[in-house]
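Two entries, shown back to back:
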Amino acid sequence: MVIALLGALDRARALTRASESLSGFAGRIEAHVLQAPTGLQDYYPAIYGGVAALSFGIEGNSRTEIEGAADGLERHMVVAYTGLSHASGHLNWSIVQAVIDGDAAVRERLHRISVAALQGRDCLHNEDWPGLGAALDADWEARKGLAPGISTPECERMLGAARQAGAFGARLCGAGGGGCLVALAPPSRRDAVKAALANAGAQILDCAVDREGLVVEPIADAG
């Protein structure tokens, strides 16, 4: 929503802003409103759409489009709402504090998450859906031990139900603690995974990969 509002306001002011600048501006607005540190990863899909690998490194941030992955992802992806709200800022800040304090166990888990992310990127390039599911599971196994509250018994029951119904892998989206989950399953098992998640208490959400990202359309004769 922030990206959509900024895009509309920029158009109304006849202002041209680089996409990278737009993501940074949106992040600073969010941090100011929430009075807490925020990430930048959520703005890139809103700006560009598509499927991409994001890299945040010493030399700056980069986005690499993964061509041809959208169709396959849609055929294998199941998204559901757990029914549990979460406060990702609180969870993430506790992890940042642990890293600053030199917590070796947390740093080791973050390394495992990084490895899983790179594996997932390669699997998307190769359309290796079982491998991508395994990367999701590896990420979640490392992530849920980063801080109390990232995983809950209710969430674990839902994720377990998806896997038992035939999903290649599943994890909570974002920081965990609730919110939405994503599962990857063979197309022939998607309906079974959806049914298992619904029986476990999740709300199945219709989803698709946005191909366009931010599009601003002037309304004719808006008064």
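entry 2 starts here
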Amino acid sequence: MSTDAQRSSRFGLPRAIRGPRLAAEWLSTYDRSGWPAPPEGDGRPVMLVPGFLAGDASLTRMAVWLRSGGYSLVRSGIARNVGCMEPIVQALERRLEHAVDETGQRAMLIGQSRGGSIGRALTVLRPDLVQTLVTLGSPLLDQLAVTRRVWPSIGAVGLLGTLGVPGMFSLNCLLGDCCVRTRGAVSAAFPDGVRFLSLYSRSDEVIRWQACLDPAASLREVQSSHVGMAVAHSVWAALVAELAAKPLASAA
């Protein structure tokens, strides 16, 4: 057995990330003693929105890291991100609104991949709820800017949804009326008074990295795989540096 395979087996790596690069990223934050100091939360709500085909569990480690810095975690409630964007945004809005009312502070919203596009739509529609939006490898300029390896999964979900399988997006979400509002919000002018960070990797194996370069965002290139962005030490450190270097005038 190779060294990489031995380490994967020893640390119980999820099957989805049992490649040398992903294994190294997963292991880079496996030991809490090696975590970079998290940004200061001071009780501020933070919601993490998972990417396509993923759920809250995929962002558990980042959530624990942020909570160790004093953030109040608000779960998205997404088990597998394959649904229509409109009802997803509506559900997240209700959860976030409750958290903001309870804490009296606008939230930090972090979205990975499709989760970042959803987060941008929610921020545009409800900027009163969001203090900072962070996107991790999110195709903000074109939601279909993905590599060829992803198209079979998108096509399968879209076909099932179009055939009427509940809980899955359909062709109508892309071309019809059901998601007009949220589709427009993904590309609409970004609101003033909200910090916006887009982290991207030129070696992203899922998203075409150019689609992450939203002109409304502060852009930060990282060296990471797509899946590994949620657990890579280098990405966490870059996030901390960006938040510290670009304070927002109003943090209310």
